[in-house]
Amino acid sequence: MADTFPEHSSPVYVIGGGPGGLATAAALRERGIRAVVLEKSEAVAASWRAHYDRLHLHTTRRLSALPGLAIPRAYGRWVARDDVVRYLEQYVEHHRLEIVTGVEVSRIDRAPDGEGWVLRATGGRTPSSPVVVVATGYNHTPRVPDWPGRKTYTGELLHASRYRNARPYQGRDVLVVGVGNTGAEIAVDLVEGGAARVRLAVRTVPHIVRRSTAGWPAQATGVMVRRLPTPLVDRAARAMNRLTMPDLAEHGLPLPETGLYTRVRQGAIPVQDVGLIDAVQAGKVEVVAAVESFEEDKVALADGSRISPDTVVAATGYRRGLDDLVGHLDVLDARGKPLAHGPRTAPSAPGLHFTGYTNPISGMFRELAIDARKIAKAIDRTSA
């Protein structure tokens, strides 16, 4: 499209060059609103470039495209990490997005006149705008619990964000801590990559679902049910589990008593099976109790046992990392998540939008695309 930006208009600054930031910039550009994406790394899609090698989207190609550009069919139904990066690079070129790399925004302040926002960025930069969109990502800052004895542990301990593939762990005894989608997939990767022993420490047993059943993706079900009453979805999910899933109770993974959608509402997305079920049934992944502490070369578990793995991979999640950036603006809840999301802004912070800080059952990329269009519409309406 031709550039239609007013000659002296202030751009909308979008902080973060991941899928949420790029989608929002494209949606704004489509409405003739100039958007400048500020990315702290040297290239867009930085977090995707850093993910482990075998990662694929758990959502389908058709339901994961961002506004204005389909994901190429050649990338397959479940898009691989490298193809996600390639798609996001293509997305920037296709929409002719304005990206400034190597610029980290450390703080957002209200403008001195109370109208709009001033960004505190590297190099002493202080760009300002009436509208800012924060899209620094759901998985921003790796979180490792402060387990007693952690700092004196003599074995290898790394966060899952530093795991790339199983090659360094061939023939080794590895404990994976955390059974979200990342922990489950890393455990399978270690088994398939030749680790001598793989154990999976579980504190809260997750719901596990098939990524697809008879060709029907779990994401499509998530899209269909996300507006339905929680108890109804819980009952339907339990019935589907009986039909499609083996009983893993004897292996340490019983069906949780709390319903699947109730868990989703609490922020816990079900684990999509990409080989964990078979690995657990075959005894290749051993489910053990949660980690309680570290004692020199040993790991103490909640059931009183002690084990001595060579390596511990902490798949223990991430923090949103928004406190330093906007924590002083009273726009975050007690968990550090934005009080208002997408097209809505906090009453005390008009013009400050957030996108990508939920973990929806219907798929992150899909919801980022929807949010992008809504944010662009809201900005267009308020700036008219």
TrEMBL record:
Sample GO molecular function, one term: monooxygenase activity
Superkingdom classification of source: Bacteria
A Gene Ontology cellular-component term: cytosol
This protein's record includes keyword Oxidoreductase: yes
Cytoplasm is among the record's keywords: no
Key words, A-Z: Monooxygenase, Oxidoreductase
Pfam family, one: Pyr_redox_3
Protein name: Putative monooxygenase
Organism: Streptomyces bingchenggensis (strain BCW-1)
